[in-house]
Every structure is written in C-alpha cells, then in structure tokens.
Amino acid sequence: MTEVSFPQPDRRRPEPLWFQVEEAIRAIIKSGEWATGDQIPAEDRLCALFGVSRITLRHALRNLEETGLLRREHGRGTFVRSTTLVAGTRELTSFTQEMGNIGVVAGSRLLDCSLTKADAAAAAALEIEEGDPVVRIRRLRLGNNEPIGIQTAQLAGARVPGFLDSGLLQGSLYEALERRYGIVAMEARESYRVGTVPAADADLLGLAVGTPAFIVERVSIDERGPFEFTISVMRGDRYEIRSTLRAGRVPPNTRS
Q: Is 174 in contact with 94 (CB distance < 8 Å)?
C-alpha cells in the first residue's frame, strides 16, 4: 500500500465529521492509493490519523461498506473490495449514476442494437402486443473496466421512433431518452432471482458457463406507462442485494 495523506476534518464546515471522513476515504480509494484487496488501517489508527472519535469513524466506515467500497471480515480487518454494485432501497437511477454514487467509473460496451419483435415476456412487461416492434439493446456493463454484468434492454418501438439512427448509446441511456424523446423514468419494478451464466455471456463476463449469477428483471415506467424492459445477468461476486427489515408493529409497553 502506498503512503497516504489523511486530510483533517474541518469542524467549522457545515458537513458532519463522519461525512468528511467518508468523503476523504472515498477519495483515497478512487485515487488508487488504496487498491482493490488492500487492508486499510485499523480503527484506532484511523481515528488518530483523522483526529476523530471511534463513533464518527465507524459511521463513515459503515456507509462505505453499505455502498460496496469496503468489506469487513471478522477477525481480519477491513479491505478495499473489488468493483461491486450494491442493490437495495435506493433512488431510481441509471447504471451510470449508480456506479458514480459508489465512486466507480462506469463503462459500457455495445454488443447489439437492433429492431426486433416483442416476445411474450416483453409484450406483457411493456403492455404492447406480442410481435410489436421493440428496440433491443444488449450491453456489457463495466465498473473500473471490470465486467459486472450484461444487460439486454427492450424499448417499446412506438415510443422511440428513429432510435437506431440517433446515436444515443453514448453515456446514460436514460439521459438520452429524456433529451430526445422527453421520456423521464418515474418508477421501476425490479425482480431478482438466482440463475446461472449462459454460454453466450460466459466469456464476456470472465466466468465459466453455469457459474451462479443474479438475474434481474426491470420494468421502467414514465407518465405514459412502461417504456423499457431489461433483463440483466450480473456477476454474483460483483453484485449484492441488501435490505433493511423493520418490525411491522411495535409491541405495546406492558409494564404496569
């Protein structure tokens, strides 16, 4: 691990100390000073380096762990983890935005873009007739140049006339759809299941055929209804699902 500078949080700033520490660690990781697999200093050492309490430091580390930048191994310490997209309760964002939120450079390689006919699954998701035209976009998704998953999106053809000739596949698809067609995603429904990597995707993902993977289906909706149906095959070692569960009812206080 290279020698790292630790900026001291400024108590005169309006941002909480834990937020300043979190941003400082995020910047260290993004700069490459702490590389994937590196073990970061122990909590007491970090407290001394940043000049903050253990409570403040733990708040920052917990946030970084939840967003997938760090992993904590009981009995060993905390490590910089490989590029990982963590799915859970979050805002409706594009892949590009999600990766940016965890300090990872999003990348994409276009594998196919064509006009085809909706099969039964796409027709049901997009609320169109089977056989209606859809624009099929198949992309390899990258984070810091490492493969994370393969996404196959289908757009209702009637909503995106001229898409194949528009050159809209550079950067965020959602931003392009808003700019060209006024489509703004308001809601998305996602379902997750465990599957395996098919032969067509194995080499691109750097995995053996049949390796466990997450299969994610997403239907994106704007004010006019569904416009996008996406099926993603995500690497299980670089994609996580986390949820926070809460009691539905708080037991009454039975003390007299």
A: yes
Residue matched to tokens 């995106």:
160
- What's the gap between Cα 151 and its chain centre? 13
C-alpha 72, offset from chain centre: 19
81, HSE (Cβ side, Cα atoms, 13 Å):
23
| Residue 3 clears pLDDT 60, i.e. is over it | no
Residue 53 contacts residue 14 (beta carbons within 8 Å): no
Q: Among residues of the chain, what percentage have pLDDT more than 70?
A: 80
Tell me how far CA of residue 30 lies from CA of 38, 41, 101, 155, 178, in angstroms.
Answer: 13, 17, 12, 34, 30
- Write out pLDDT tens, residues 60-113: 898 888 777 788 877 788 888 765 555 554 444 555 556 655 556 778 889 999
Task: List the domains of the chain with CATH numbers.
Answer: 17-80 (1.10.10.10), 87-241 (3.40.1410.10)
Cβ–Cβ < 8 Å for 111, 215: no
The single-letter code of the amino acid at 83 is: T
pLDDT of residue 256: 41
Q: Count H helices, E strands: the chain?
A: 7, 10
Q: What mean pLDDT, rounded, does the chain reach?
A: 82
Residue with tokens 């703004």: 184
Vertex 96, ends 125 and 230: CA angle to 5°?
15
